UniProtKB/TrEMBL annotation:
Signal sequence bounds: none
Coiled coil stretches, renumbered: none
Occurrences of domain Reverse transcriptase (ranges): 376-664
Positions of region (Disordered): 307-328
Native source species: Rhizopus delemar (strain RA 99-880 / ATCC MYA-4621 / FGSC 9543 / NRRL 43880)
Name of the protein described by the UniProt record: Reverse transcriptase domain-containing protein
PANTHER family named in the record: REVERSE TRANSCRIPTASES
InterPro entries: Endo/exonu/phosph_ase_sf (IPR036691), RT_dom (IPR000477)
């Protein structure tokens, strides 16, 4: 070992810091044995190292607790990395924001902010109405605003330090006392002699058993309290389960052997090389003019661009200037208050630590202040540096987690920047050049499913025209957002009529940014990117669409003759243009013959070189090329004359490709592939949910079913609305849902789920698919005429929507005219399903289903006041798990069955007489369950305890090998609540 340590320049710290002190103590053959087997190794120089080995702690292990504390030597840190010393620790500031939901702290927060912000508001008004000759200290004003919010939070809700890593929710003072008593007994045993050693060992063993049992009881009680707290508030349950689900999902984070300080610098160097503009062409659009050359300050929004100049600032009447700052401005307080209310919560803040939850309670006062602040920024084409600083958090994509290139840089920016961008969004949409009809990404009234259906229709149209399926090339842009030449965007906006004041503000907002990498609370040295738009910015998707907007028109020059034509502007009188490409942001698909696709790839290459971005040939794919081999899903063309390539790199040939989350084969959408594609992800999500409490030992069945419908079912619903499903596909989808539902109750792989769906009102997937298709068809009818899907529907002789989707029974049952609001549509869906459920329950031959209520309501057994054991009895009876298999009854007269229990001697006969009288042909217990009152505030029926006691006897007969303690007062929880309400 000494040679191994010397070869690696490692030092064992146990020697100089704890020489001869054992780290392992055990007993073998009534003898105490010890050894040093737990060691600290290092190759660094440590300052003030200290190694503590706890010998008097009872840990239930032969190993002792080791604690090492030290400081890094400056020389060692500088030797390991010259840039690491520049990295800074950037811990988040935390407050008790949950207290803002309480009336008193929230009111105190509002009052404190209103009084503290009044001087700042007056100062902002004065600066806007009487502009100075030079730019005011906007960064200092922003710092003042942040400090006002910080102080208001400190005085109202208080800050919250991060919880230590060893914090446990179930830990109480009683457990702490029990742990200390166990350690005290352990120390007394270690130091005792003779007979006292036996006594204290016995005491320690008893204390250890008591402590472990107390921990188990505390965990169980804490878990039950947690589950119960989520039952009454589904929104709270959804947020909490989402948080727990995120914790259980494995996602790699970027690390470095030398620690997080080095990791952020390595990632920063990689991103700086991406953003450095090395792909930019030599010929570029001119840079936008400097705002100072346009005559600062500009007038407030709504007035002429050059209302106020530095020299004339003192001569401008305040009333005139104030009148221009009206509620019609894009920075009006009403608009900003509305935008603050729309901000998403539970999002990571920017460098200023401010989150949307902090702004919503003070939105009324803050909107007036921000209205003047944004106007001031507009006047001087300058925003605070904190708003222009992005903390990039790397999100792992796939591949080797140690490579920085396998991470997606997500920008965390100030929430005030987000508000400013949201305010500018309507203006940007109005002044942008018209986006090509082939672009469907991040545009109003368009979706990824629309674009996928458009691709299917174009493939089918090409086949009808040429009697062969087209070649489809799916193209991927390398680091799409990060390599954008922003000058292309500013030039396009300028040519389309964007005014100088707003355009100057937008240019400043994106050109003068700084970026630092944030990993494990460590931040790198900021750098300024030459190219790119921030991923995570509100305006970045639209700006990218402007950037790539010239590509579809370029590709139309080489469209194949069989390419479908649509009106260029959505009007029947407009000229017809071919649709041979589809874009959804940076996802590109080109359609045509092999020859035309080859020519389009050449144009794509030329377009990328002229704009300064690059395609990624290894992530592109070609579907249905005539020379591709059907037996290979990732081969490349052997012939250089007919191969499809980018930058002299052949593109992979595939038989199936997932475009926008939907699988495509040569004929278009593939429903069987869609089901097989979704299944692994759905089962993975269900496994995570099952682990965090969506099971029969965790949350109630009612909450579990709602969580399944919220988190798991949407995973395999995506794409079903535009798919043509066969009976085999429907059966596969139903089986997938059944597998998920069995996890809720712990059923075996063939157990029926019909009762689960009925008592929780979960629809079958057949009905759910009909609902999705009906909603999609109604939405498609209301799309603007300029949408590509509308253009295809009106120009194609045959479309999937008209021929297949609108033929589903639910859509055909719609009244005329169709419901105009979502509320009326939901009412129609419910009435339609109620008729189906009533017909099914009354006509079915399934005994358990006929025993349920013939109505579309949640079964009261899922929510009436009951203990976990009582509700388990009720649910298992409904599911048919009681009586279970027909085995011999302990009474010895017959086998266990529903019929036998009516006459079994081991069940007290008076319990049957206590139940409500049932009509002929009905089972007494089933009738009693169906007679339970609806509503969570209903009074307890008098026979409730007899019903529960009856089920307890049946459970005991079905499992005579187990012990089931009898409740002295079954049903007491519901009785007590009913009595409390009556009092």
């Amino acid at each position: 070992m000494a040679r191994w340590l010397a070869d690696r320049s490692l030092t064992v710290l146990n020697g100089p810091l704890a020489h001869g002190i054992p780290t392992w103590v055990g007993f073998r053959d009534d003898r105490e044995m010890s050894s040093i087997i737990d060691m600290f190794l290092t190759n660094a120089s440590l300052l003030s190292p200290r190694l503590d080995i706890a010998s008097d702690l009872s840990l239930g292990s032969d190993h002792r607790l080791l604690t090492l504390s030290f400081s890094f030597a400056q020389s060692s840190a500088s030797e390991s990395s010259t840039d690491t010393s520049n990295a800074t620790v950037h811990p988040r500031r935390l407050w008790n924001l949950s207290r803002l939901g309480e009336p008193d702290p929230c009111q105190l927060y509002q009052d404190t902010f209103r009084s503290s912000s009044a001087p700042l508001l007056s100062q902002l008004k004065r600066l806007v109405q009487h502009p100075p000759s030079s730019r005011p200290p906007i960064d200092d004003l922003n710092a003042s605003l942040n400090n006002i919010i910080y102080r208001s939070l400190d005085s109202s809700v208080g800050d919250r330090p991060p919880r230590p890593s060893h914090w446990k929710k179930y830990w109480t003072q009683q457990l702490q006392d029990a742990a200390e008593y166990r350690n005290r007994c352990y120390r007394r045993w270690r130091r005792a002699f003779g007979i006292d050693k036996v006594y204290w060992w016995h005491q320690h063993q008893q204390a250890n058993v008591s402590f472990r049992q107390a921990v188990i009881d505390a965990k169980r009680l804490s878990w039950q309290t947690f589950c119960k707290s989520l039952e009454s508030d589904f929104s709270k349950a959804t947020a909490k389960v989402k948080q727990l689900k995120r914790r259980h999902q494995t996602s790699a984070s970027f690390t470095h052997p030398d620690g997080p300080a080095t990791a952020v610098e390595v990632m920063a160097r990689h991103l700086a090389s991406v953003y450095d503009g090395h792909l930019l062409p030599s010929v570029r659009p001119p840079a936008p003019p400097d705002p100072s050359s346009l005559g600062l300050p500009f007038g407030p929004p709504g007035s002429s661009p050059l209302v106020v100049s530095p020299g004339a600032a003192a001569h401008t009447p305040s009333s005139t200037t104030h009148s221009t700052h009206s509620n019609t401005s894009i920075f009006s307080p009403a608009t900003l208050a509305l935008l603050i209310g729309q901000l998403p919560t539970r999002k990571a803040p920017g460098a200023d630590h401010i989150k949307a939850e902090m702004l919503k309670p003070i939105s009324t006062d803050l909107s007036f202040l921000l209205s003047w602040f944004f106007t001031l920024c507009y006047q001087w084409s300058y925003v605070p540096s904190l708003w222009r600083h992005a903390q990039v958090y790397p999100i792992f994509k796939k591949g080797d987690s140690s490579l920085p290139s396998n991470y997606r840089p997500i920008s965390l920016t100030s929430v005030f920047r987000k508000l400013l961008e949201l305010s500018l969004s309507p203006w940007l949409s109005s002044v942008s050049p018209p986006l090509d009809l082939a672009q469907g990404g991040f545009r109003p009234r368009r979706s990824a499913l629309d674009q996928a259906l458009c691709l299917h229709e174009l493939i089918q149209s090409y086949y009808r025209r040429s009697h062969r399926f087209p070649v489809v090339a799916f193209l991927d842009i390398k680091s799409a957002y990060d390599t954008v030449d922003r000058r292309v965007i500013w030039d396009a906006l300028s040519r389309s009529g964007a005014s100088s004041p707003f355009l100057s503000l937008l240019v400043h907002l994106f050109d003068d940014v700084s970026v630092s990498v944030l990993v494990s609370d460590h931040s790198s040295v900021p750098f300024s990117p030459v190219t790119g738009v921030l991923q995570g910015s509100v305006l970045s998707p639209h700006l990218y669409s402007v950037y790539i907007n010239t590509l579809p028109a370029l590709l139309r020059q080489v469209a194949a003759p069989a390419t479908h034509l649509v009106p260029s502007s959505g009007s029947a009188d407009a000229g017809m243009v071919p649709v041979n490409s589809l874009l959804f942001a940076d996802d590109v698909a080109v359609i045509g013959s092999a020859k035309s696709v080859k020519e389009m790839l050449k144009l794509c290459q030329e377009h990328s070189l002229s704009l300064g971005y690059r395609w990624n040939p290894t992530k592109c794919a070609v579907l249905n090329h005539p020379q591709s081999s059907s037996s290979s899903s990732s081969s490349t063309l052997p012939s250089s004359s007919g191969r499809l390539q980018l930058y002299d790199t052949p593109l992979p040939l595939v038989d199936e490709f997932v475009y926008l989350g939907v699988p495509f084969v040569k004929s278009g959408l593939s429903a069987p592939s869609l089901v097989s594609l979704r299944s692994p992800g759905v089962l993975k999500v269900m496994a995570i949910l099952n682990k965090i409490g969506v099971n029969r030992q965790g949350f109630s069945l009612l909450l579990c079913s709602r969580l399944y419908a919220t988190f798991a079912r949407p995973k395999f619903e995506y794409g079903l609305a535009i798919s043509r499903l066969t009976a085999t596909d429907l059966k596969s989808i139903e089986n997938l849902q059944d597998r998920c539902l069995r996890l809720l109750v712990g059923g075996h792989r063939t157990s029926s789920t019909t009762i689960i769906k009925h008592i929780t009102t979960l629809p079958s997937m057949r009905h759910r698919i009909d609902v999705l298709i009906t909603r999609y068809c109604l939405r498609a009818r209301s799309l603007p005429s300029s949408c590509l899907l509308s253009l295809l529907s009106t120009t194609l002789p045959v479309s999937r929507i008209k021929v297949h989707l609108e033929k589903n029974p639910l859509f055909m049952a719609l009244p005329s005219p169709a419901p105009s609001s979502d509320t009326r549509l939901k009412t129609f869906f419910r009435q339609y399903r109620e008729r189906q459920v009533t017909s099914l329950v009354t006509s079915t031959t399934q005994v358990l289903l006929r025993a349920c209520r013939p109505a579309l309501v949640v079964d009261p057994i899922l929510y009436v006041p009951a203990t976990r054991a009582e509700r388990s009895l009720l649910v298992r009876w409904r599911l048919g798990w009681l009586p279970g298999k027909p085995e011999d009854c302990p009474c010895g007269h017959d086998r266990r069955s529903r019929r036998h229990f009516l006459e079994c001697d081991l069940i007290p006969s008076f319990l049957w007489s206590d139940l409500p009288r049932c009509p002929p042909g009905s089972y007494p217990i089933d009738f009693a369950l169906s007679s339970l009152p609806l509503g969570r505030s209903a009074r307890c029926p008098p026979w409730w305890s007899s019903l529960l006691l009856m089920l307890w006897h049946i459970q005991r007969l079905c499992r005579p090998d187990r012990y089931y303690p009898i409740d002295s007062s079954p049903g007491a929880l519901w009785y007590s609540r009913s009595s409390a309400r009556s009092d």
